[in-house]
Structures
1.
Amino acid sequence: MTPQNIEKFDEIAGKIFAALYESFPVARKLDAKEFVEGGFDAAYFVQERTGLHLRTKEGDFFESTIVWLTAAGYIQGVSKEREPRPHDIILTPKGLEVLKAVPGSLTNSPTLGERMLGATKAGGKEVMRAAVKEALSLGIKMTVGG
């Protein structure tokens, strides 16, 4: 049985991939409230003393997923001209190539990106997790030249 954190990672990564695939080549802002189950209330809480929105454990999990996907070379931050840190995210060439891949030997089946996009819209968590596993496996093979 797959550990719960891996299943959650696969679901969030799939939603991120689908959103970036749909907007490609335009970078887009990614906010935890769009990607974690439960929306804003699950991703953030308001600190009463300061009124600041702080991330919850779920919000931190989303941010950690972004960090991992960036370190693995699937996505990257895009800095604005006058802003010192990345605010928008885009697929890297590796990320796009993986999402454009057609799984297996079926030439007429949807790409991994299309499968993730469809699963996001239909709420298909199992399809999403399976597509993410395939994408990450393909990305590893690309990295090691397999």
2.
Amino acid sequence: MASSTADSPAGLSLEPQSRRVGEKAIVAWLFLAALAAVLITIAIVVALLEPAAEFFRFVSVTEFFSTARWTPTQADPEFGVLRLLAGTGAAVLYSCIIALPAGLGAAIYMNEYASFRVRQVLKPLLEILEGIPTVVYGFFAVAFVAPLMKDNWWTWLPGQLGEEPGTQFILAAGVVLGIMIIPTVASVSQDAMAAIPRGLREAAYGLGSTRMQVATRVVVPGALSGIVASFVLGLSRAIGETIVVLLAAGAMANLSILPNDPVFTMTAFIGRTSTGEIAYGTTTYYSIFAVGALLFVVTLVVNLISIALVRKFREVYE
């Protein structure tokens, strides 16, 4: 037995050596994947910076953020991006009002109340909902949600809120945006809740807590960092969505957040203008890149805030 061990030292050393080579190959592949993501981000920034800088040769930053009107395609163009920011903010606001409580409620139900069989049905259905193309959501907003709301508008509301909307208005787009990001919020939040140790739940039940108390006072606070991350993922998707707001929110750059007003978002402007007939090298052409750069900065700020919140509320369990 001793001789066989002594006769095969090379055989014993081959397996660790091959394992080390495989691990190095995997690490190298992961490094290349991370490097590719960084390089793609840098390429996007570079692609936006030069045309955006060209835009600001003709339009000052002060004018860009303070002008009252956004009319880039008219004979006497004005470039007041605040109206686009307001439209984007309104779309995100209404989508979050729908998606955040609904997504969190779905996550709590799936994780704390639903049986294993029910969870096995609900989660794939949510993932299917997440995989539906956005253009389908856009036509759903135009063909079903907007006419339904228009025909049943709350005319008893005071002032401008009681005015019946047109065929395109921000609430219809916001509702469909909210429906679209519910699966993201629910899925990520449920995964965060599932990571909470079972011992915490059992200790709470042992103290006489009800299921609702365990869910709202133990599980949700413990999974708060993951829930915040799910909210920000949904928020980022709502900010960057194009087709739904392009089809359902209208194309009027109104400085309004009223639900029955049409608005123009940053993504809708980029989508509509870049596919239209505009001359290369004009200020209107370069305005697409300026708005794209601003959208990039807004998304970056949202993600930085997300990172800070996740670090603040992160819980580590052993």
3.
Amino acid sequence: MSIAGKLGVAGAAEEAHLLGLSAIQIFAKSPRSWKTRSLKAGEVEGFRARKENLGGLPTVIHASYLVNLAAEGELWEKSVFSLADDLAKAQMLGIEYVVVHPGSGPAEKARIGALKARELAGLGRNGPWLLLENTAGGGEKLGANLHTLAELVEGTSLGVCFDTCHAFAAGYNLAEALEALEQTVGLQRVPVIHLNDSVGERGSQIDHHANLMEGKIGEELMDFVLDPRLKDKIFIMETPRGTLEDAHNLRILRGWLGLT
């Protein structure tokens, strides 16, 4: 959901209501800039009120695409600060989850960066849950291998966000990926699913999302969504936006769930 407009974050909750959604994801600032965004007067109260009126409306903040928690020097410092800013905003807004790509470089550096961002945001045990997202792979990008992702969060308060397009592009069959998640990370640490079809073929390492049933994953997605182990998870579609696209994707998903 977009936070553009005079209502800001509260406007995203308003749009969710109009679309009949039960969960949303937002960017708390531009995803392709280091510039932070201050919350406007009344924005926090407006969002919290709408969220409550919509039955809680579980919400996810997606961190900036520029963040690289495994980087060195100034880039690492900027990344940690940017992520800490998102976590602090989530805390103020009563948002439950913040999702971030681990980055490219040493796994231990990414793990330290994630934990440092939580510390800078001043989060306690009851603060928003920071989730590391699996990736499509390529180069030194972390998170394409689910075993590596499990090692990143092991022994920490961090969780995992699982993206279907990224897993497919990394070479996984979704049924096999779910088994791997359960055996390595543990599904109790995977509260959020990004439900996306893939423009690229399996194993292509192409991070390009498609509308449901219009990409290369197809029926595999439906079987994944209907797996009973995922019935309590929060599903977020990062599919192309637009009136027709939204209607198509919601119709497909609601049809799978028997809600139409």
4.
Amino acid sequence: MTTELTQDPRPIFARALDQAEKQVAAVSPAELGNRTPCADYDVRELLGHVVSVLHKLVRVGNGDDARDVPDVIDGIADDGWASAFAQARAEVERVWADDEKLDRMVELPWATLPGRTALDAYTHEFTVHSWDLAHATRRLAGLDPDLGSRALDAFAKFAPPEARGEEGPFGPVVPVPDDADVYTRLAAYAGRRP
């Protein structure tokens, strides 16, 4: 029987990148200053962060140190974010096309993991950041509920509320109604205020 840890994470990762890329491409220059639910980031900074994450994934995929890449890339023209994301994504897909990299240990800024586990974790990060961008630009329709559900399940395992401190990317869980949609529950679980 195939488990989540032995499956190839790249198809689901690609779906998360498809969703994020659509959100990035939809952002207009007038929306770059909008606040996001992601603490301390406006839309421009969040775009710089997601492009940065792609660059970090290229670095670790090549066996290099991802800490050399800033958490937020700047200097991208207002109308250049879609192109910057697409170019960085193409490089990530090129680097991670090698099946052997899935089982090689990679050193991330926050952990050392097998490549497949790292891609799985970043799948969920891109899913949450897609919601962040969609919320900030009022484009919530069309987010993939399966990706949201997968991310919610994953966050419950690797970011349980009792393991969170004052520092880090996840605030306390925000209460939402039991019948809230999966992205509202995901955002609340990640500490956003949907």
